[in-house]
Amino acid sequence: MSDPKRVAIIGAGMAGLTLARALAGHATVHIFEKSKGIGGRMATRRIEDISFDHGAQYFTVRDPRFRDMLNAAAADGAVERWNRDIVSLPAALQNEQRANDARYVGKPGMNALPKWMARDCDITFNAEICSISGTPGNWTVTTEAGEDGAFDWVIATAPAPQSAALLPPAFAHHAALQTTRMNACFTLMVTLKLGAAPPFPAARLDDPVINWISRNDTKPGRDNVPSLVVNAGPEWSARHVETPLESLREQMLKAVRRYIPLENTEAESAVIKRWRYANVARPAGQPFLLDREQQLASCGDWCIAGRVEAAFQSASLLADALLPALRETTP
Ligand SMILES: Cc1cc2nc3c(=O)[nH]c(=O)nc-3n(C[C@H](O)[C@H](O)[C@H](O)COP(=O)(O)OP(=O)(O)OC[C@H]3O[C@@H](n4cnc5c(N)ncnc54)[C@H](O)[C@@H]3O)c2cc1C
Known about the structure:
Blueprint: E1 5-10, H1 14-23, E2 27-32, E3 44-47, E4 50-53, H2 64-75, E5 79-81, E6 86-89, H3 96-100, E7 104-106, H4 112-117, E8 123-124, E9 131-135, E10 138-143, E11 146-151, E12 153-156, H5 160-166, H6 174-179, E13 181-191, E14 202-205, E15 210-215, E16 227-232, H7 234-239, H8 245-256, H9 264-268, E17 271-282, E18 289-291, E19 296-298, H10 308-327
Parallel strand pairs: 1-2, 1-12, 2-8, 6-14, 12-19
Antiparallel strand pairs: 3-4, 5-7, 9-10, 10-11, 13-16, 13-17, 14-15, 15-16, 18-19
Helix pairs in contact: 1-10
Organism: Ferranicluibacter rubi
Pfam families: Amino_oxidase, NAD_binding_8
GO molecular function: oxidoreductase activity
């Protein structure tokens, strides 16, 4: 028997972790993650002891394999339904499809699900891959700290523009990466005073600046302090990608005040985050990008749609296609 193939996965978000779990036992898999934590855009952060889901707000489930995994995570307490109603302001915005889907969240924070998925994964954090070099079957990935080599396969799960910049020119699917479009999004996190919470758990908004306000504390297992997560709309975010954050923070706070009477201290404590590649405006139109000859691949939500479940599906389908190649013996 020949040695198991070595696979490098770039990114420890939903796609990278799904892939690592699916390939485990069939290859030696190592994940390189540029940030210090797990989950990518399934993100949770603490500000003065209050936690905020400042990336994905919730996820829906239709794929049977995704459902199976969530059932297992739920049995371990890492996922729960978020049953609260989302209102639309104005009410005419209501989208029946969205309203009828059951919504789930990680517990106690959105990143609890990726953390649960990563339990047996081999991950190097603070490892931003800046280049991939070598030849098919013998790839080297380079970080600021140095090189790691002799990978049979390298798979990039970073957002499409970042994967495009990383994958060598020989990768056969650069055209699909180039046609993919991702939107920016600004997220504002606000801690409210007890008793100052808005009368809705979450709202979709028809507003020129913001399109979403949720009360993070209405999700299961969160801190019992009213806290808001506010998202800016895609058009406004696209116009302001390079605008200084402080000015955007003020504009978002002004927009929030159209719905909730914030006090000064609450506004002062608000923190803004820029997601340069948050959502998918135009997907790649293929469930994954696989170059068998170069032994390079790429996957992520941007292949299908800007949803957590789409990231899972893209990676699961890529794993299905890759497994036979990983079983082939090296000549
Ligand atoms: C504000 C916001 C709100 C959202 N709301 C929802 C929602 O309500 N419902 C829903 O279903 N989805 C939502 N989404 C989308 C959802 O978060 C994504 O679809 C999903 O998390 C994408 O997973 P992924 O693994 O494809 O990508 P990512 O989560 O982006 O993972 C990619 C990983 O690659 C890492 N990486 C990038 N470059 C490098 C490099 N050079 N070297 C090493 N590592 C690298 C990144 O740090 C990241 O961890 C939202 C996203 C945002 C930002």
